[in-house]
Amino acid sequence: MLRLEKLTKTYKTGDMALKGIDLDVPSGQVLALIGPSGAGKSTMIRCINRLVEPTSGAVMLDGTDLTGFGSGALRRARREMGMIFQEYALVERLTVMENVLSGRLGYVGFWRSFLRRYPQKDVDEAFRLLDRVGLLHMADKRADELSGGQRQRVGICRALIQQPKLLLVDEPTASLDPKTSRQIMRLICELCAERGLAAIINIHDVALAQMFVPRVVGLRFGEIVYDGGPTGLTPDKLTEIYGKEDWEATIQKDDAESDPEVTIKSAPAPDAEAGKPEAAE
Ligand SMILES: Nc1ncnc2c1ncn2[C@@H]1O[C@H](COP(=O)(O)OP(=O)(O)OP(=O)(O)O)[C@@H](O)[C@H]1O
């Protein structure tokens, strides 16, 4: 569904953030992108929907390269890719419902959204999504009245109402406490499984990634140095990705595996097994 081919990004400052990334993501597969600060994770996510312009290489979505698209074609392609941000990126003075509906911008056009005249089917879908994430009763609240976890749920609804095929998720839990982080990761992975959605989740918390996703990609200095299952992230592999550290204290413990809340990765989305590579050596 998504294929990155020799993707590179060199910023004007000379920083080579991505050095020839090759990556295949089959439809329905959820993967976590890990790596130290500055490894290129955000750059990679943003090159996929061209919030950052790649320097060279291809971003193939369903067989079509997005890198050459003009603004109209890019706008249509971006409908297929919902984005979820660390800082939620909500419009604070708008209501929860209005924020969710703003996810339809790519479909309804500027004036209709500016006048907040969305088709009834979009409003119905927004209510359904808010109900699914437990925020139906908050539809009329202003975004600035919500907690961080609630804001992220609104961000998730806004991405999903686009009806995307792929979610690009940039540090969704970095501003949240551990319990809320786990709830949000669980919700994202559940929704992907329910909707057959692929996702690339940039996440700093290795243990959280290990709990929920069937595939982890490790970046270091703009290159993929790990691509495999969560259990293959041994202390040696983590040292290769991040450098020396006491990994026994960081990686997933056996008791987390038996936690009844943590069920997502044992139920991968359609096609996930087919596209899941073995751990890179
Ligand atoms: N707008 C920019 N201009 C110049 N250099 C940039 C820009 N954005 C990122 N970089 C550089 O590109 C490299 C990759 O940065 P990026 O933010 O993608 O890494 P990251 O893995 O997401 O880091 P973090 O986990 O800290 O967010 C870094 O060397 C960074 O300094």
Automatic annotation (TrEMBL):
One GO cellular-component annotation of the UniProt record comes to:
membrane
Where in the numbering of this chain does the ABC transporter domain appear?
2-246
Which UniProt keywords are given for this protein, alphabetically ordered? Answer: ATP-binding, Cell inner membrane, Cell membrane, Membrane, Nucleotide-binding, Translocase, Transport
Q: Name one GO molecular function term.
A: ABC-type phosphonate transporter activity
The record, for InterPro entries, names: AAA+_ATPase, ABC_transporter-like_ATP-bd, ABC_transporter-like_CS, ABC_transpr_PhnC, MetN_ABC_transporter-like, P-loop_NTPase
- Looking at the record, which segments are called Disordered? 251-281
Q: Which PROSITE patterns match?
A: ABC_TRANSPORTER_1, ABC_TRANSPORTER_2
What Pfam families does this protein map onto? ABC_tran
| Gene3D superfamilies recorded | P-loop containing nucleotide triphosphate hydrolases
Q: Which NCBIfam families match?
A: ABC_phnC
Name of the protein in question: Phosphonate ABC transporter ATP-binding protein
What is the native source organism of this protein? Sagittula salina
